[in-house]
Model the fold of this input.
Amino acid sequence: MVWEQRWHPLRREWVVVSSHRNERPWQGERVGDQLRALPQYVPDCYLCPGNVRSSGRRNDRYSGIFVFDNDHPCVGPDAPTQLAAPPGIYRNAPAAGYARVVCFTPRHDVTLAQLPAAALLGLLEVLQQQYRELGSRDDVRHVLVFENKGEVVGVSNPHPHCQIYATNFVFKTIELEAEAQAVYLAEHGRPLLQDILVAEEADGRRLLVRRDQALSFIPYFARYPYETFVAPRATRPSLAHLSASELVDFAAVLRETLIRFDNLWRLSFPYVMVLHQAPTDGSPSPGFHFHVQIHPPLRKPGLLKYLAGPEIGGGNFLNDAAPEETAAELQAVAGVHYTQGG
Done:
């Protein structure tokens, strides 16, 4: 049995690892395995090429990557600048910005893990362009790029896509990470993520995929059983700062990592994937090291890692699986997608 606290240096909080709890009896709800086949095109899908969206706008008949402004944005450039003052000690402010949707492919029936290598590389190049364009605007302080994949994380449309929120504020997790990395650099003279990469490579047990200029791993301090980081080896503040050769290696590592997820239980693995990029508010963000964090919600086939008392009420994550054990599972599967003979 394992009862251990592990320090999460980016969030500056403790994670409790209790791997024996993954074998406890379960009589709760099980989630579906998402094995049903999808068609290449769905006439009423609001993301398929040429279709009409809920706003009445029609999609381009795109053949590659398609980017458009979200019809139902959570922030907008026309947010009111004058708001009624709330009572007492409360405060408010406009939630301004830009929300966009990025369709990876015209095909409705594939996922990011199933895209050809060249297509995934092209997608990352588009996301580089989006970060540069949106981040250069005076009213944008941060560009958050994320993909929600799978019904169990609340995705209502399986058409492969991600979203971009370019906001007049910095999301809290990025703010915490920027502060932690700046403090670490000032105290140690080295970027925090660099030392994490050194520690993970020295240990080796949690590494998943490696290339000359990028790697992926389940971190020592993982909060979810299969939580995974994908990072360039060099400290770059954003995806847009990667060189062409760095981007090639990064894309290859990301792609194989996602393939290994699907191959683990031979299903389309759900997750929330977020690009952790430096704020664009003009602050220096010293030591900020761009990386991707992937948070899969499953701890076993059909069983969710629920956020309950410790996480929601107590504020600290409890991981039911030792990162070394889940990494070994992913290391053992093929790097070629199971639908392609892997």
